[in-house]
Amino acid sequence: MRRYQGTETVKPGFYFNLRRLSFESVDKARPLAGTVDDVYRRVPVVVLFLVAPLLGLAFVLFLPFIGFAVVPWLLGVKAVQLTAGAAQSTVRVLRPGWLPALAFLSRSKRAGTKPDKPDTWTDDVQKKLDQPDDDES
Fold this sequence. Notes:
Oligomer: single chain
Largest sheet: 4 strands, antiparallel
Distance between the termini: 105 Å
């Protein structure tokens, strides 16, 4: 069997692309579809008539198995999507809301400056903390 490249002008007939597993029917002389990297082989009509029933039989025999294989595959894909979505939501909730890269240095008080008014709450808390406990023995 002679090899034909994509974009090569061929005479009418059936051509098979092994890489894409596809047949191309050519009615009149024209270039084949694809690129120069695509390789086609001409298939005689007699061979096509002999192989077509076998391909149909293989399709009919394996169709139920294909269905039994596709359903678990689809369920598995959905399960992966659900767990990935749940994991992303969990990480989004558990992620801390602080941004360590932002220092906000311009908002701090300058060193050595005293506040305008005394902080009475801080003074009261400091006094309570400094008092000895009566319950300690």
